[in-house]
Every structure is written in structure tokens, then in C-alpha cells.
């Protein structure tokens, strides 16, 4: 046993070590400067992300418990998959209260699982909690993308989480299939960022099999395949994407191939004017006119062609720098992908309220890719939120939404060339 004097000196030394560590911790973290960094420094975004994820868990539970559920499509989903459960594989015979089944096979399989988990679709409360989980997983995937890319400041996460009643409603009060497709999409984007191209293609294709809007990302993704995988690799990835669609759709293709292809991949479907968010200021006869649809498609293709060259340059740079493991390099991959989707949304024949999740989580990234001031960016974000929360839509809300989309696309076009800031940040990150 050590003498009392030595024990006292040892204890004193330990106390001094602890005090030095506490002082060091206080000097490093318990400062005004560090508090500001937690709010403004993209490299510390993960701290806010963790706190907000925990907060969102409680918020969503509160929403589920306190705000009444609104039935729109859930019962129809269950009726559609119930037909498959009962042995009907002919797509033309699968229907619900809202009409025929119009989603690909992945939707059927996934919602069949939900059908059984929720007591044949009757346990709505359990379904809401499952969609709460989908919401939190989606947020975690989005936060990971933002953390790695270091593009937006942490305070913008508050706008993603706390400012959109519409998005919370779409997930846990309406139970649409759009959020499920978006979750698999963001999973695929995370995999692509890490270089897992084959697995990313599987998740991307599965997202498409739930809802076709995921194809809006395809033009930029094709350029990413070509730039990073070459022609042979691109053919391989496209084969994986197409092969999964064939495998998932096989039972329906064998039963009635034409009905499945027309029903699940119907690009000419006419939407109801009463639900449109973006074209309320048009007369209904123009809204449903095929000429209007063709014009939108042509404008969509033209704008994609205008952006194709800078996008491909971005993707080639991404392919070259991705092996370095520097997270900020992912900006070169994300901007074309998110912009392609925005262009598709801007020229959609109609946007319904649940379609907001198609691009909601990408808006901060897109706005921070423009040369606008912070206040203008926040104003654009606020106006977009206002438009999507205006029910029913008005001439003004639809027009303002188009103006906001136009401003974002123009801002991205003005900054379509790689900036010196990105090159400097890459050097700092190494």
C-alpha cells in the first residue's frame, strides 16, 4: 500500500488533469464563437441534425396523437393491393375507390407488406407511426447528404423540420406513397455519393417502381453514369435498373403485359384540374389540352439540353475527385441531380399537394447554389411554402410558385460554372 503522502499527491495530480481537461473543453466549446459555428458552420451541421431528429420524433408523435387523420388515398391503396392478395395479377382489374391502380409493381409489394402489418389496412394509427419512421429515416438520409456536402448552414435544418405543416401532413396525416419513393431515392443518392453505384442503382430503380416521378432525376443520373462508369459501366447500371423493373413486374407482365405497361407507366395520364397547385390561372380547357402537355414536354427537354454541358462537366469532376474521399466533392454530383428534378417539377403538367415532397428537401441546397442574398433565398423558400399551403390554389399562388421556380433555375444557371469557392473548400477539406 502506498504511503498517505503519495496517495494524496496522486489524487491531486488526477484532479489537476481533470481540471485542465475541463478548462480545455470550456475554452474550446463553451464559447460564443463555438455557439455561432453551431449555427452557421456547415462542418458542424451534424450536431443540429441529431438534435432535430430527436425533436422531430416527439413532434410527429404529438401530431399523430393530437391532429385528426384525413383519409384520401390510403383505403384505395389497400383496396388495390387486396386484389393482388386475392390472386388478381391483371393490372386492368386492380382498382380502388379513387380509380384504377396507376403505380408500378414495387408499390404493390411494399403496400402489401403494410396491408398485413396494419391488419389489412384497418389499423390507421399503426400506419401513421410507420410513416413517422419513414419520415425520420428520410430526414436522416437528407441530413447526411447535407453534412457531407457542407453546402448549407446548420440553421437551415430548422426550416426543413419546423416550418412546413404541409410536409408533416403528407407523411403522417395522409399516408401517401410519394414519401416512400422519396426515402428510397435519398438512400440511393447516399450510396452513389459513396461510390456504391450498383447498389445505388438498385435502390434508385426500386424508388421508380413505387412512383414514376423519381425518373425526373434520371437525366442527370445518366450523365453521372457516363462520367464515372464509362459506356460499358453505364450499360451495366441501366441493365440493373431495367432488370429490376422486369423482375418486379414479371407476374403482372405475364398476366397482361399491355395493361401493366399502360397502367403503371402511363405518361399521358390526364390530371384533374380541381387539384392542381401550379396551373390554377389557366382555363381548364387549356390545362387538359394535349398541345399544352406537348409544349411543357418540349420546354422541359430544351432546358435539360441547356444544362447538359455544365452538368456533364460537374459529373466528370466528381468522378475524378470522388476517390479522394473529400465530402464536399459531392456538391458536383448533387447540384445536377437536384436541378434536373426541379426542372421536371417546374414543367409538370400538374402538381398535387402531396407532390411537394418531390423536391421539398432539396430546396435549401438549390437556393444555396444561387448567387442571391440570404434574405432573398429565405423569401423564395417562404413563398414556395405559402403556395403549397394555399388550399384551394389560387391564380396568385400558382403564379408565385412559377416565379419562385424560375428564380431558382435562373440563379443556378448564372452559377453553372464551378466556382473558385468550391476549389478552395476542397483544398481546405483535404
From TrEMBL:
Q: Which GO terms describe its cellular component?
A: endoplasmic reticulum membrane
Compartmental location: Endoplasmic reticulum membrane
Q: What is its main location?
A: endoplasmic reticulum
The UniProt keywords, alphabetically, are: Endoplasmic reticulum, Glycosyltransferase, Membrane, Transferase, Transmembrane, Transmembrane helix
Enzyme class, broadest EC rank: transferase
What membrane topology does the UniProt entry give?
Multi-pass membrane protein
Annotated pathway: Protein modification; protein glycosylation
**PANTHER family the UniProt entry points to:** DOL-P-MAN:MAN(5)GLCNAC(2)-PP-DOL ALPHA-1,3-MANNOSYLTRANSFERASE, NOT56 - RELATED
For this entry, the protein name equals: dolichyl-P-Man:Man5GlcNAc2-PP-dolichol alpha-1,3-mannosyltransferase
Q: What is the lineage of its organism?
A: Eukaryota, Metazoa, Ecdysozoa, Arthropoda, Crustacea
Tell me what gene encodes this.
EOG090X04XE
